[in-house]
Specification:
The protein contains three helices and seven strands. It is elongated and about 55 Å long. It folds into two domains: 40 residues, no CATH class; 88 residues. The longest helix has 23 residues.
Length: 148
């Protein structure tokens, strides 16, 4: 019962903070898929800061990717991927998921260039840098396990 009360108090305190942060300058959402495991798991809460668009190799970004699908359809697909390399001359990026055996990424479709610079090829728009709330996610999972 103590664990449940701690969980209720935590959620009661955390939700207003997430709401203020989301309304101010960031958006929070729940991760889906398994291409970023073990860093992000399906159901993890992440925060994307749309003001943080400077590309830093090694960081995870929310990316809208065009022409990145295996069907050749031109559409904006929301991805969460790690930027591995940035080509200085044209700002094209190499992106990969952390779960390499299942991730569909630059190893499949190559370099992804800024939107409007490479028509017909994979192009991106940065939605924001992703900050996983790993500690919070793991704490919530452990509380859920204790309550069961």
């Amino acid at each position: 019962m103590k664990g449940f009360i701690k969980w209720v108090v935590f959620v009661g305190l955390a939700m207003p903070v997430v709401a203020v942060v989301s309304a101010s300058y960031a958006s929070s959402f729940t991760s889906s898929g398994n291409s970023m495991e073990p860093t992000l798991h399906a159901g993890d809460i992440v925060i994307a800061n749309p003001l943080s668009k400077k590309l830093v190799p090694g960081a995870i970004y929310g990316i809208t990717c065009y022409n990145c699908g295996d069907d050749g359809v031109m559409r904006g697909e929301g991805l969460r991927k790690r930027v591995i390399r940035v080509r200085a001359e044209d700002r094209c990026i190499w992106i990969e998921g952390d779960n390499k055996p299942v991730s569909y990424d630059s190893r499949d479709y190559g370099w992804v260039c800024p939107r409007g610079t490479a028509p017909g090829k994979p192009e991106y728009e940065i939605d924001g840098r992703i900050y996983p709330l790993v500690t919070v996610n793991r704490w919530i999972r452990s509380l859920k396990e204790r309550v069961k």
